[in-house]
């Protein structure tokens, strides 16, 4: 059961609940996803992935496969057209995995080595599975842990600052009355949206036309243009409906394969990834090993703060899981140090996965805060109140708005926190031990330049054109509401067109920036349009269109710490016989600026919290050291929360005005997941008296930890 | 995918004849496991013989209070049957503990018995596996095995049997009936799944081409006081990391009869006969239950990552037998 509470704003479209404008199409099946759009003469491509984790391709034995029924071509490094990977895209250099079939090197298990194209999907798959590829295998190394001597500190990038440092850490630790020093680990985790990655490409009147499922059509179009050395205007990418993305749907091998094949065959080509292929082709969250050292006065005031986060990347591309960024926003201390270290292994390149950095980082940091509260003998919420900073702990900049404590106050009231006995291991109900826990959440509120056009039509309606991506969030509906308020008309008079690169450039749906970025552009264009519409004046048949571009306004923003905040609460039950952990309820209270559509916003918060529950208890990709690949890479083997694991989740928000901000919207895509795993782990400690610093908190780990705790308590006299 | 033939059979002899002796033919029940394995390339049948329309969908009672159910009864229907729930609650509970509602609506009794292990090495054709490809090796021994066998395994294979239903059937001495071209036959469940030894690819004692037609539970009053408990890593849609089917008859504090089978610990449902022997005639106390569990688990050979199962199974035996004792004395 899922319940939510709260009162919608009484005026305006923004702030009141609206069902999705495309909802009927989606539930009736009328909405076509990228793998479903029909084309005359469509052909089907199937990717073949490497079975060795490192080495060189000796041969691709295409001959026998070309003789199979329906097979049209086999593309591989020996015959593939050139693609240009030496460029700087919107998010930096492209991941070399999109330089498809350009050489014979294999850097990890599951690297694309060939594409088989056939008349039907079944023929392509059968031929792809029959294709013999010979390798010269080399020893591989996929073992991740924090003690690796080849770990290094990455260079700063516009995305991630590797290290920050102030004060004398060791001195402050030495003079602290209370010290927490612990290592936390999170496993390799995968975003596997329900809709697999799928693209259909064709040449249409001299233009490349791609039907895709992605988080930004302008972005993918621009990358494809650069890869294939095409004029930007000659590439069109559409992504009408997206069945989930979570950071995984940018440029991937499937689009490149489809474009390459349609260029060779001059027929439409569709490439759809299988669930198993997604595990090596679309990125994932790196495992992390994080050491946290906190030094505090007896009353909990932090003197020393140190967060060192290790993660991995591939041998071909650098990605940093920025787990240590959280403390730069959350907690100040006299000495403050945050550091990222990475190691290159023979594995696929990780990527952004919902709340990159903050999700694993908050497990470690918010668990450590709970350990500090225990050691100081003060309430975990009181500890956070005591350490609430005035300004950015590292930047010194003011916060645009920071209502973290209001989240804790409201959450504590609703959750019944005041009645909590802080002592662990006391509450028992039959075979279950019960406990509660809390954690803070935060995520940056970013923004990116966008263009929009708003047209007043002759029939009295309005058309909004913004190249947004609705990846299941309700973005399309949110833009209707934003435009309606900006135009001061009812939402029923507004139609919105999104997800087409021909609409002009706009920010991607990523990093919780989409709604803020697009709403800004739509509002500016609507304002401009209203100024041009003369009272009582007529509208010509082609309508009147106003356009906007937020690049200048974004550049003029003052420097501030801009973030959403939240407080997570969890109650768990732990079976003393079996080690099973079940969550009984979750409550998340957020301060995230203006909430555009309470209906879909709750959905996003609850979705994030459910993911946090999965992260705490279930999610873990197992990498097989011998083969370098995964074991159980499918949705039966890779566990995430089932409905039965999610009994009661509530999400709500507090008022969070952002003074002087031109938009007031902060973005809510990520923050729901942040802190949830820590709140659950803290609740497991409260239930059992045992700290779990390794995710997921599986039954075997709970049983082992309980055994070890018992052994310690009895002086090691008894064995398991 | 590979093209395959599909035939629907309407009577048992017709089904057996259609399959013939073709090693590349498979009977298709609910398809909840076979179709997945076909997608993964683990199974590549040339012919599927659909047996869902065979007249094997009945649940009947045998003389003396036994239970006989056909091979095509769905897991949902068997679990919901009032007499199954009354006479053998552990069986109904084991079925409901499996898979999801949608899968149980499709899955059949015959298919449930014949489902393959979910070992991640078995289901990945790019990895070695002695069960799938005899002689290729067992990477689980040195690799991922936190949910693998602790009892009766061999160096050739440490995979577990995935069925929940079969654990309940093992506790209650089910007999499996089958049909072949040469006539019908029967196997007690204790002989149905052979020891893994050096032949992990031989998963049942069924003769080639045999079609399971029915399962019979012999009369046994103790089954009415029974329970199935499954431990898994999420609340639904996960295979067991440990499970137990137990029935108990206690009079005046003394164990008169006990049935005990353990799941997810071996290549087959593990009938805990050693524990049963220790318990019979002794006190129904937590200490006695623990001692019986220890006697059974003395044979356990845990690997680096699955030793917790010894603790888990011991705890489960004590917990479930204690619950049954307390309920029986009310």
Automatic annotation (TrEMBL), chain A:
InterPro entries: Ald_Oxase/Xan_DH_a/b, Ald_Oxase/Xan_DH_a/b_sf, Ald_Oxase/xanthine_DH-like, AldOxase/xan_DH_MoCoBD1, AldOxase/xan_DH_MoCoBD2, AldOxase/xan_DH_Mopterin-bd_sf
Keyword Oxidoreductase: yes
Keywords of the record: Molybdenum, Oxidoreductase
Coiled coil: none
Signal sequence segment: none
Keyword Oxidoreductase attributed: yes
Residues in Aldehyde oxidase/xanthine dehydrogenase a/b hammerhead domain copies: 28-139
Protein name according to UniProt: Oxidoreductase
Protein source organism: Streptomyces gelaticus
From TrEMBL, chain B:
Record-annotated FAD-binding PCMH-type domain positions: 1-222
Keyword annotations: Oxidoreductase
InterPro entries: CO_DH_flav_C, CO_DH_flav_C_dom_sf, Diverse_Substr_Oxidored, FAD-bd_PCMH, FAD-bd_PCMH-like_sf, FAD-bd_PCMH_sub1, FAD-bd_PCMH_sub2, Mopterin_DH_FAD-bd
Origin: domain of life: Bacteria
Full protein name: Oxidoreductase
Organism: Streptomyces gelaticus
């Amino acid at each position: 059961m899922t319940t939510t509470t709260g009162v919608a704003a009484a005026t305006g479209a923004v702030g009141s609940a609206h069902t999705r404008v495309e909802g009927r199409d989606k539930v009736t099946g009328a909405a076509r996803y990228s793998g479903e759009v029909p084309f005359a003469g469509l052909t089907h491509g199937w990717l073949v992935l490497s079975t060795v984790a490192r080495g060189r391709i000796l041969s691709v034995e295409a001959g026998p496969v070309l003789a199979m029924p329906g097979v049209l071509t086999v593309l591989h490094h020996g015959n593939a057209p050139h693609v240009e990977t030496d460029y700087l895209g919107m998010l930096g250099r492209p991941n070399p995995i999109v330089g498809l079939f350009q050489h014979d090197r294999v850097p990890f298990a599951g690297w694309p080595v060939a594409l088989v194209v056939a008349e039907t999907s079944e023929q392509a798959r059968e031929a792809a599975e029959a294709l013999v590829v010979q390798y010269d295998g080399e020893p591989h190394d996929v073992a991740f842990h924090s003690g690796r001597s080849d770990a290094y500190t990455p260079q700063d990038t516009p995305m991630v600052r590797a290290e920050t440092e102030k004060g004398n850490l060791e001195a402050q630790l030495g003079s602290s009355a209370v010290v927490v020093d612990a290592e936390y680990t999170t496993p390799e985790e995968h975003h596997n949206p329900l809709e697999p990655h799928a693209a259909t490409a064709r040449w249409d009147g001299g233009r490349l036309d791609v039907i895709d499922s992605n988080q930004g059509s302008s972005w993918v179009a621009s990358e494809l243009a650069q890869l294939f050395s095409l004029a930007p205007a000659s590439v069109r990418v559409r992504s009408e409906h997206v069945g989930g993305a979570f950071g995984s749907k940018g440029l991937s091998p499937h689009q490149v394969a489809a474009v390459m094949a349609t260029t060779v065959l001059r027929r439409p080509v569709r490439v759809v990834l299988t669930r198993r292929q997604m595990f090596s082709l679309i990125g994932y969250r790196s495992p992390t090993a994080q050491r946290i050292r906190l030094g505090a006065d007896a009353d909990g005031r932090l003197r020393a703060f140190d967060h060192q986060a290790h993660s991995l990347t591939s041998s071909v591309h650098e990605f940093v899981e920025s787990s240590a960024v959280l403390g730069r926003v959350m907690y100040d201390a006299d000495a403050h140090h945050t550091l990222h270290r990475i190691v290159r292994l023979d594995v696929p390149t990780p990527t952004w996965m919902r709340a990159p950095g903050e999700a694993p980082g908050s497990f470690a940091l918010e668990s450590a805060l709970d350990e500090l509260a225990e050691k100081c003998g003060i309430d975990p919420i009181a500890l956070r109140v005591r350490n609430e900073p005035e300004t950015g702990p590292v930047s010194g900049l003011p916060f645009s708005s920071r209502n973290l404590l209001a989240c804790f106050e409201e959450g504590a009231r609703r959750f019944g926190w005041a009645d909590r006995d802080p002592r662990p291991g006391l509450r028992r109900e039959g075979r279950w031990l019960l406990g509660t826990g809390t954690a803070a959440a935060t995520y940056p509120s970013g923004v990116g330049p966008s263009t929009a056009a708003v047209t007043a039509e002759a029939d009295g309606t309005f058309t909004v054109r913004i190249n947004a991506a609705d990846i299941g969030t309700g973005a399309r509906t949110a833009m209707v509401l934003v435009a309606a308020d900006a135009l001061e008309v009812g939402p029923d008079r507004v139609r919105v067109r999104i997800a087409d690169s021909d609409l002009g450039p706009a920010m991607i749906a990523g990093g919780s920036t989409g709604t803020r970025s697009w709403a800004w552009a739509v509002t500016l264009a609507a304002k401009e349009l209203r100024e041009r519409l003369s009272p009582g004046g007529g509208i010509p048949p082609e309508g009147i269109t106003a356009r906007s571009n937020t690049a200048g306004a974004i550049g003029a923003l003052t420097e501030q710490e801009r973030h959403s905040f939240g407080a997570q609460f969890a109650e768990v039950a732990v079976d003393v016989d079996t080690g099973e952990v079940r969550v009984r309820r979750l409550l998340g209270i957020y301060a995230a600026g203006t909430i555009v559509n309470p209906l879909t916003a709750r959905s996003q918060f609850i979705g994030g919290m459910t993911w946090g529950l999965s992260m705490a208890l279930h999610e873990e990709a197992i990498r097989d050291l011998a083969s370098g690949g995964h074991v159980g890479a499918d949705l039966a083997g890779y566990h995430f929360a089932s409905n039965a694991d999610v009994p009661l989740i509530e999400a709500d928000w507090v008022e969070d005005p952002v003074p002087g901000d031109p938009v007031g919207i902060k973005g809510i895509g990520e923050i729901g997941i942040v802190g949830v795993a820590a709140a659950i782990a803290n609740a497991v400690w409260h239930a059992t008296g045992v700290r779990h610093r390794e995710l997921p908190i599986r039954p075997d780990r709970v049983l082992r930890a309980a055994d070890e705790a018992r052994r310690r308590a009895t002086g090691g006299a008894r064995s398991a | 995918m590979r093209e395959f033939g599909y035939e629907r059979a309407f009577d048992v002899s017709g089904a057996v004849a259609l399959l013939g002796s073709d090693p590349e033919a498979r009977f298709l029940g609910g398809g909840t496991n076979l179709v997945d394995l076909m997608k993964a390339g683990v199974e590549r049948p040339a012919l599927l013989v659909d047996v869902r329309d065979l007249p094997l969908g009945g649940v009947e009672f045998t003389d003396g209070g036994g239970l006989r159910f056909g091979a095509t009864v769905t897991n949902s229907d068997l679990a919901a049957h009032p007499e199954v729930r009354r006479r053998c609650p552990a069986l109904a509970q084991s079925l409901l503990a499996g898979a999801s509602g949608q899968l149980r609506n499709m899955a059949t009794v015959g298919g449930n018995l014949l489902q393959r292990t979910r070992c991640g090495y078995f289901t990945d054709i790019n990895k070695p596996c002695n069960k799938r490809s005899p002689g290729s090796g067992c990477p689980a021994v040195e690799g991922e095995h936190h949910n693998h066998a602790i009892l009766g395994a061999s160096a050739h294979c440490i995979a577990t049997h995935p069925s929940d239903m079969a654990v309940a059937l093992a506790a209650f001495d089910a007999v499996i009936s089958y049909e072949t071209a040469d006539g019908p036959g029967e196997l007690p469940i204790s002989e149905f799944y052979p020891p893994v030894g050096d032949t992990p690819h031989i998963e049942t004692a069924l003769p080639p081409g045999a079609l399971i037609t029915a399962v019979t539970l012999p009369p046994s009053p103790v089954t009415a006081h029974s329970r199935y408990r499954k431990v898994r890593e999420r609340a639904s849609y996960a295979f067991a990391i440990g499970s137990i089917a137990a029935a108990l008859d206690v009079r005046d504090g003394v164990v008169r009869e006990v049935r005990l089978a353990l799941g997810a610990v071996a290549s087959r449902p593990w009938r805990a006969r050693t524990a049963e022997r220790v318990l019979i005639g002794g006190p129904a106390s937590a200490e006695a239950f623990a001692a019986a569990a220890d006697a059974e688990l003395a044979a356990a050979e845990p690997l680096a990552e699955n030793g917790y199962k010894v603790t888990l199974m011991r705890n489960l035996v004590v917990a479930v037998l204690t619950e049954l004792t307390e309920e029986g004395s009310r």
